[in-house]
Amino acid sequence: MLREQFPGLNVTVHGKPLVYLDNAATAQRPQTVLDAVQAYYTRFNANIHRGVHHLSEVATERFENARASMARLLNAPSARQVVFTRGSTESINLVANTFARERVQAGDEILISHMEHHSNIVPWQLLCQQTGAVLKVIPMNQRGELCLQSLDELITERTRMLAVVHVSNSLGTINPVKEIIATAHARGVPVLVDGSQAVPHMAVDVQDLDCDFYTVSGHKMYGPTGIGVLYGKMHHLEAMPPWQGGGEMIAKVTFEKTVFNHVPAKFEAGTPNIAGGIGLGAAAEFIMHTGIDAIQRRDAELLAYATEKMQAIEGLRIIGTAAEKTAVISFVLDGVHPHDLGTVLDHYGIAIRTGHHCTMPALQFFKVPGTARASFAFYNTEEEIDYLAESIQKAREMFA
Ligand code: 7TS
Fold first, then answer.
1. Which of 217, 329, 330, 360 to mutate to test the pocket of ligand 1 (most atoms within 8 A of CB)?
2. Does residue 1 carry a pLDDT above 90?
3. For labeling, which of 41, 202, 203, 374 is most exposed (least CB within 10 Å)?
4. Peptide bond preceding 139: is omega within 30 degrees of 0, i.e. cis?
């Protein structure tokens, strides 16, 4: 049973068995990931890429194997195109501060969408402030789907970059990024895809998508926190200036001049999150071993089941009803503030997230200050969904 491989699910909260429905914030980790992290700290703890001693060699090999696992998971042409970062946030900031900064001048435009996470808004806003560029937004409809008929018009001669989320964390919408990328490329515009919520739930093939950049957060794909990756096309990564300076990212340093290291080391200044990287490799192997198709099928079952159960609750409105969704249900309940609902559910042992989910503009569009969000993973069960629905009913009665 897959669920048993996740010890973090097997705890009690307020004396009740945990029902973990906050997977979009961070997922649980399988034992293989925990073991990989533990093995590094207990069996081959050493710094990497620099020691000639045995432990350093073992640690380096495991870290680089993890990079190769991530490359296989994303179908990147080469492991060198996988840069380790702290997560999606850092990956996006890296691209904004190197690739985009070199291309953007006053009056140029950067295009994002209305449903972006703040981490795919604010780095671009900062860049616009610093350069005098303009941020433009692809609109969405009432179901939480992007209005792509306007895309061709939104892209102009001045568009230098398009950054779009693959799967929305607050609405669950799966965006047709392959089409978006093709449209942008036809106009010579490079595309960054924020894949934070996609990689844990669906097959991602960066070559098939033809994206210029793709960002991943390890902790959402059953890996450790504080680690993620940036995939980039090789010619971009090679042309990009480094971001942070320090050890590892150099080939030669004199006081007059520094020669930078090759890709990906050029973007990995300092001692990296070695344990995190190794754990992330184990998470990638876990997904490939379990089978992303099986994960996706289970997600779809849970989404269909939960949607039906939730829709049957009087006064409950689902925010985000796109035709293509992953297993995320954001909702508001008449007469009950999302935070109050979250607190009541917590007492029943149910973990959901409430608030704006770092997507304030998306929620402003729906004219709600916040939602309650249940986000599922393949290890959740129908029984847990029944219990969620019953508990929401109880909360409703309590506040009536
Ligand atoms: N992009 C999306 C679509 C996300 O969902 C998140 C995190 C990020 C970027 C940032 O990822 P980080 O790992 O760098 O922090 N989303 C959420 C969430 O939905 N609840 O907590 C964090």
1. 217
2. no
3. 41
4. no
Could you tell me how far CA 161 lies from the centroid of its own chain? 19
Q: How many domains does the chain have?
A: 2
pLDDT at 191: 98
Distance 25 CA to ligand 1 centre (A): 6
pLDDT digits (tens, 9 = 90+) for 183-207: 999 999 999 999 999 999 999 999 9
**Paired strand residues for 371:** 355
Angle subtended at Cα 139 by Cα 135 and Cα 142, rounded to the nearest 5 degrees: 150
Q: Per-residue pLDDT for 359 more than 90? A: yes
Which one of 21, 121, 146, 169 would you pick to mutate in the ligand 1 pocket, going by the greatest count of ligand atoms within 8 A of its CB? 169
Q: How confident is the model over 326-343, as pLDDT tens digits?
A: 999 999 999 999 999 999
Q: Which DSSP state fits 170? A: T
Residue given tokens 């993620």 in the structure block: 228
What residues make up the domain containing 41?
A: 32-289
Distance CA 229, CA 201 (A): 17
Q: Is 358 one of the annotated active-site residues of the chain?
A: yes
What is the per-residue DSSP string for 183-217? HHHHTT--EEEE-TTTTTTS---HHHHT-SEEEEE
CB-based contacts of 337, cutoff 8 Å, min separation 6: none
Rounded CA-CA distance 28/199 in Å is: 14
* Residue 191 sits in the same domain as residue 129: yes
CA proximity to 86, closest of 286, 284, 251, 244: 244
CA 18–ligand 1 middle distance (angstroms):
22
Residues within 6 Å of ligand 1 by CB:
24-25, 87-89, 117, 119-120, 165, 169, 194, 196-197, 217, 353, 357-358
Q: Where are the alpha helices (DSSP H) in 312-381?
A: 338-347, 360-365
Domain of residue 313, CATH code: 3.90.1150.10
Ligand 1 geometric centre to CA of 227 (Å): 13
CA–CA gap between residue 139 and residue 193 (Å, rounded):
17
CA distance 306 to 231: 33
